[in-house]
Each structure stands twice: as structure tokens, then as C-alpha cells.
Amino acid sequence: MRAETLKHGRYYRMDTFRPVEAVAYRWPSGLLRAERIPRRELGVIGWTQASIGDVRSDVYVPLRIRQQRGVSACGTYDVVLWPGEQLAEVYVSVAPVRADGRLGAFVREDSLNYGYYPAESPIKFRLRQVEVGPPGIYYLKIGARLGSGGTSTKEYWLYLSGGAACG
């Protein structure tokens, strides 16, 4: 897991390595308080390595971050993008990954249609397990039309755990 500041000019990063079986981790927050880093300026990601076909790849895993006990929607994943420049539109494509590494049929291919995507501001969208399919590894492709013209594309591998945590 890695946490780091998202705002330019603020430099803070904490890393920790956790076994896949780890259910919870209590991140020490004293330094964040001392440095007065607000929650909205902190990005946290978790990932592991997995074989996709014959290739070892980074696979991002869902994290549940909370300050106090709370209930969140089971099988719902909030994805947050942080663009370095203004975007004109964002496109999302999602497909399950088969055991041999090939992609299954796309279960989502659409644009966010938010209308405004300023630089250095979060762009949030939601993936729901019930809409994408059973737990497993998924391919996520983010495409963007840049505000300055041109396009950009990023690809990710995600593990969506779905019903396992929905007891």
C-alpha cells in the first residue's frame, strides 16, 4: 500500500507491505496531523503482483479506508483519477480477464459525461460488482480527450473481490 500527497508542492509518502491475507492495517496518522495534510490531499493505492497469462503484472486491489466504523455498499468500488491537465472527456472500458490472460467481453464501455474535468482535481466514478460480473481480475482502460487537444490512454488490472466481503 502507498499513501502520498496529491497536491503539487506537498511531499509526503508512506509505504507498507502487507500479506495478501491481511484484513486490516492501522496506518499511523500522527505525522499527517502534524503536517496538517487533509484527507482530500491524500491518495492511497494498494496493489500486488499476479500472473495474467504468462506475464507478471501489477494488479490493483480495493481498499476500504475509514476513520471510524461505518457501513459501505457491498461490492461497490469508487475509482478516483487525478489528471495532471484539464480533460475534455473521460472514457471507461472494463472487461473480465480469463485465466489465460485474454480479455472476455467488455462489460462497460462508455464516457463519464461529467462535462468538466479540471486539472489537479479528482474525477470519481463507480464500478459495481453486480454490473461487471463475478469476482476476479478485470482490465480497466481509461481514455481521455485532452483539453489541449490529443488523447491519452492508460490501462490497469484490477482485482474486484465482490461477494466475498459481503457476508
Topology:
Layout: E1 2-5, E2 13-15, H1 30-35, E3 42-45, E4 47-52, E5 55-60, E6 76-81, E7 87-96, E8 108-111, E9 123-128, H2 129-132, E10 136-146, E11 151-160
Shape: globular
Biggest sheet descriptor: 4 strands, antiparallel
Structural class category: mainly beta
Strand arrangement, largest sheet? 8-7-10-11
Chain-averaged pLDDT: 86
Helix proportion: under 10%
Please, how many helices?
2
Strand content: 35-45%
Question: Which residues sit in consecutive blocks of at least 5 with pLDDT less than 50?
Answer: none
Query: What's the N-to-C terminus distance?
Result: 25 Å
Please count the beta strands (DSSP E, at least 2 residues each): 11
Please tell me how large the radius of gyration is.
17 Å
Could you give the order of the helices and strands? EEHEEEEEEEHEE
Question: What do these coordinates show?
Answer:
By secondary structure, the protein is mainly beta. The strands form 4 sheets. It has a 4-stranded antiparallel sheet. Strands 2-1-3 form a 3-stranded antiparallel sheet, with no helix packed on it. The model has no long low-confidence stretch (mean pLDDT 86).
